[in-house]
Amino acid sequence: MQDPIIEKIAGIDLEIVRQGRGRRLLFLHPHLGMYGAQSFIDALAGGAEVLAPSHPGFGRSALPKGMNCVEDLSYYYLELLDALDWREVTLVGASLGGWIAAAMAVKNTSRIAGLVLVDALGAKLGSASKGEFVDFFSTPRLRLEELYYHDAAFARRDIPDLSDEERAVIARNWEATAMYGWNPYMHDPKLRARLYRIHVASLVLWGAHDAIVAASYGKAYSEALPRGTFESIAGAGHFPHIEKPLELARRILDFVNKKASSRNTSGAKA
User: Fold this and answer.
1) 1 C-beta neighbours (distance < 10 Å), count
2) How many domains is the chain partitioned into structurally?
3) What is residue 128's three-state secondary structure?
4) Rounded distance between C-alpha atoms, residue 119 and residue 135, angstroms
5) Which residues contact 211 (CB under 8 A, 6 or more apart)?
6) Exposure class string for 74-110: b at 16+ Cβ within 10 A, else e
7) Under DSSP, is residue 115 helix (H, G, I), strand (E, B) or coil?
8) Cβ–Cβ < 8 Å for 121, 99
9) Phi/psi class of residue 269: alpha, beta or left (left: φ > 0; alpha: ψ in -120 to 50)?
10) Got the DSSP string for 142-182?
11) pLDDT < 70: residue spans in the chain
12) Helix, strand, coil percentages for the chain (3-state, nearest 5)
């Protein structure tokens, strides 16, 4: 993955990675930030032009005064697409990033060609009294790391061995996660009722061993999308982009290319 840079986009100093050529793809990261995403971004960039920002308040991105909820992030990223004049964009959102992507798409898909949700949060799909996600904040860190991954080897991140800068980024990411997703916890009670507005092709990808959010939730998400389909990623937990980066990237690029081929065929018939 290329080194991130700071670029002012739509009025915010944003830490971004720009990489690759091809059809445009915006990757919205989970609450871990860009941790562990290097191989995934490299694989995506082999077949697409990828923009991967750190959300405002995450990483080294600035946090403007008054930006404090996922609704704010969704409007900001729509403005980012306008500022860059990006069209026919595929949105890819993982976990928290999936919530942001869905919140964008219910508002405006004029620049969005497709939506990919990877173990996404954000919607209340079960009963009002039922908690659908593991609580990131009350679960002990070591236990949470175990729940994130199917392969326990990925859970062995030794925080004390990290640099001061890396530890500061982790702390900042958690602070931002709490701000954006604390209450109501990691969802918008109104999002489910608005998913019908997303008329672009939508692919919901889910780690087959996700212990944070069950696959049944992912299937319900896909069923709530007018053009949603669901696929499982074998050998992955909540973060397929970390455990199965090549497989996840292949599925996404296949989706992007299939959409492009379908549009070209429709255009030729017209």
Assistant:
1) 17
2) 1
3) coil
4) 15
5) 134, 147, 148, 237, 238
6) bbbbbebbeeeebeebbbbbbbbbbbbbbbbbbbebe
7) strand
8) yes
9) alpha
10) HHHHHHH-SSGGGG---GGGS-HHHHHHHHHHHHHHHHHHT
11) 127-130, 156-160, 261, 263-270
12) 40, 20, 40
**CB within 8 Å of 145: residues ≥ 6 apart:** 155, 156, 157
Each residue's pLDDT tens digit, 181-217: 999 999 999 999 999 999 999 999 999 999 999 999 9
* Beta strand pairing call for 122-123 and 187-188: parallel
Per-residue pLDDT reduced to its tens digit, 146-179: 999 999 889 866 666 789 999 999 999 999 999 9
Domain assignment of residue 248, given as a range: 5-269
- Residue 244 is classified by DSSP as S
CATH of the domain at 181: 3.40.50.1820
Contacts of 27 (CB under 8 A, 6+ apart): 37, 41, 44, 50, 51, 52, 92, 93, 94, 97
pTM of the model: 0.95
Q: Kindly provide the b/e burial profile for residues 7-46, where b requires at least 16 CB atoms within 10 angstroms of the residue's own CB.
A: eebeebebbbbebbebbbbbbbbbbbbbbbbebbbbbbbb
Which helix (H) or strand (E) is 190 found in, with range? Answer: none
Alpha-carbon torsion (248, 253, 254, 255), positive or negative: positive
**Start-to-end Cα distance in the chain:** 40
Element (H, E) at 8: strand 5-9
Nearest to 103 by CA among 68, 71, 78: 71
β-strands 12-19, 48-53: how paired? antiparallel
